[in-house]
Amino acid sequence: MINLREFSKSYNQFMAVSNLTLEIKNGEIMGFAGLNGAGKTTTIRAISGLIFPTGGSIEVDGHNIVNDKVMASMQIGLVPEFPNFELDAKPLQLLKYYAGFYGINSADAEKRAIELLKKLGIYQYADKKLKMYSQGMKKRFSIASALIGDPNNYLFDETLNGLDPQGVKDVRDLMLSLKKEGKCVFLSSHILTELQNVADRIAIIKQGRLIKILERDDLANLGNTVIKIGIRNPDNNINSVLKGYGDVIFENSFYFIRNASKNLDTSEINSELVKSGYRVFYISRESEALEEYFLKAVN
Predict the structure, then answer these.
(1) What is the pLDDT of residues 231-264, one digit of tens each?
(2) Could you give the 3-state DSSP secondary structure of residue 203?
(3) Which residues make beta-bridge pairs with 226?
(4) Short-list 256, 231, 234, CA closest to 246
(5) In the predicted model, what is the mean pLDDT of residues 190-205?
(6) Rounded CA gap, 15 and 189, in Å?
(7) In the chain, N or C: fewer CB atoms in 10 Å?
(8) CA distance 79 to 115
(9) DSSP class of residue 125?
(10) Which UniProt keywords apply (predicted)?
(11) Which pLDDT does position 286 carry in this prediction?
(12) Is 223 left (phi over 0), alpha (psi -120 to 50) or beta?
């Protein structure tokens, strides 16, 4: 489990992240969305212990990332956006070296390293130096590096970048597998459809500040058809008229009916509203995808 409490990070006079409070639970995948420069990578680097908070606190499985950095870091598997390795090394020897930080003996380290290289589809290239790897292969090796110590928490920073469609599917399946094992997964990505495919919740950040957390129900409704209604003379009784058609929400001067029957004709609703004395100036079936919601939220 990862806990951020009023986490802030500044660089000189620039506040990269401000008062961010998040809890990423065991057995869940939390998506992290924001425009470039919003503070996603800064947050992930701070959770992993690569940089320290300016204010607030970060705990990993109850260990403070500043005061108990070694124990906290041992429970983090980081897959950065741009992996950086000793490029003259070969993957097997480097994974065994990383395993040493977790106290894994040489024989077990080699066995685990081979398993991971096979799992990630790069074992056939184990005799090649990392400098010969493509960007996608380096990303796969980076994932193997994050998994070698079997930590409880995983940070994926734009990990889907540079992967082919099969690679994207493999990473998606891996994250779902980690979730099933009860691991904590934090995924930042600008590929919002992929976030929607795997995430239990999505935190949206803008200019270093958390502006919205989309819960499971929110994500389930995104992409579904809703009926949007504009009324010139609303009153307190209108909900009683509309609730017979689905779940009613009032937002930005419009009424939205979610979970309505697919066979429901908007003319039926319009007729009922007019009969009840309401002046309808807009009624339509609409669909909102995550990308649309995100762009509205950050703009």
Answers:
(1) 999 999 999 999 989 889 898 889 999 878 777 8
(2) strand
(3) 286
(4) 256
(5) 87
(6) 21
(7) C
(8) 18
(9) G
(10) ATP-binding, Nucleotide-binding, Transport
(11) 76
(12) left
Cβ 202 vs Cβ 190: under 8 Å: no
Q: Tokens representing 249?
A: 């929400």
Nearest to 16 by CA among 164, 209, 184: 209
Residue 292 identity? E
Distance of CA 40 to the CA centre of its chain: 10
Which of 59, 3, 49 has the alpha carbon at shortest distance from 30? 3
Q: How would residue 167 be classed by pLDDT, with cut points 50, 70 and 90?
A: confident
What are the structural domains, with CATH classification, of the chain?
2-219 (3.40.50.300), 224-298 (3.30.70)
Question: What is the per-residue pLDDT for 89?
Answer: 93
* 88 strand-pairing partners: none
Burial class (CB in 10 A: 0-12, 13-18, 19+), 74: middle
Bridge partners for 7 per DSSP: 20
Identify the H or E element spanning 39: none
For residue 175, the model assigns a pLDDT of: 96
**pLDDT: which is higher, 106 or 190:** 106
Closest by CA to 243, choosing from 199, 212, 276, 200, is 276
The alpha carbons of the chain give a radius of gyration, in whole angstroms, of: 24
